[in-house]
Amino acid sequence: MTAPERRFPRSVFGVGAEPDARFTLANERTFLAWIRTALALVAGGVALETLGLDLQPGLRLAASLVLIVAGTVVPVIAWSGWMRVERALRRGAPLPSTIVGVCLAVVVGVVGVLVLLGVLLR
Amino acid sequence: MTGDPRAAAPRKPAPDGLQPERTELAWRRTALSMAAFSLVGARLLPALFGDARWLLPGAAGAVLAGWLWLASRGRHLRYPRTSGPSPAPAPPGSPPFGPASTGAGLLALAGGMVVALGLGGLAVVVHLLR
């Protein structure tokens, strides 16, 4: 009766039933918000080094690398989060918890401290 | 009685309200940010590496970002709506409407693009060290 499931990724669309479109759209927007956050992290990291700001060079480089690495990892976590939430929506299960927000807060805090020290120690 | 055939056409109410539109706007913001970042890359990379061929990654990123937006827009326009242009009729037996029903390839592509941009940024910073 139903066509074989061809949608990507099958590990998500192969389970449960079609969820309320509003919730799956909200899940998609959350993913996109993380993508933009990651983009901002990478942009900040690249700008920090390429603009040649007058900060202590070692600390400036460290802050830049932390930002860029975080910006590269966030899309991967966001994708896995999207899949977990979508599966939960399809199964009618409770939504999974995530620690990406806490991790990001730590990353931004660390970068702030590095830049502050970079200003003070230049 | 049987005047305008469009008036007689059944209009499916859109229970999702403005959700598809909000999602399309989120895609637009995301694609715009990617295009801006790509264009900065197109400006930066050739000067950094001293070779006009380094224009290509930035240009490719901008084109891909534009395509992402158009693809998400097409998805949005296929959604049932109560006002505005009528959506194209779905062929019989097609999966139910909704962005999820078309699969998450666009999401994966967007994520992959940002990972690529991040690795490119890492390469630029490492290059500056030398």
Automatic annotation (TrEMBL), chain A:
One Pfam family linked to the record: DUF202
Membrane topology: Multi-pass membrane protein
Cellular compartments per GO CC: plasma membrane
TM regions (residue ranges): 31-51, 58-79, 99-121
Family matches, as InterPro entries: DUF202 (IPR003807), IM_YidH-like (IPR052053)
Top-level taxonomic group: Bacteria
Subcellular location(s) per record: Cell membrane
UniProt KW keywords: Cell membrane, Membrane, Transmembrane, Transmembrane helix
Occurrences of domain DUF202 (ranges): 22-88
PANTHER family: DUF202 DOMAIN-CONTAINING PROTEIN, FGR18P
Protein name: Membrane protein
Source organism of the structure: Promicromonospora thailandica
Taxonomic path: Bacteria, Bacillati, Actinomycetota, Actinomycetes, Micrococcales
UniProtKB/TrEMBL annotation, chain B:
Biased composition (Low complexity): 1-11
Domain of life: Bacteria
Disordered: annotated span: 1-21
Cell location: Endomembrane system
Keyword Transmembrane helix in annotation: yes
Domain spans labelled DUF202: 16-79
UniProtKB keywords: Membrane, Transmembrane, Transmembrane helix
Coiled coil: none
Protein name: Membrane protein
Source organism: Promicromonospora thailandica
Lineage, opening ranks: Bacteria, Bacillati, Actinomycetota, Actinomycetes, Micrococcales
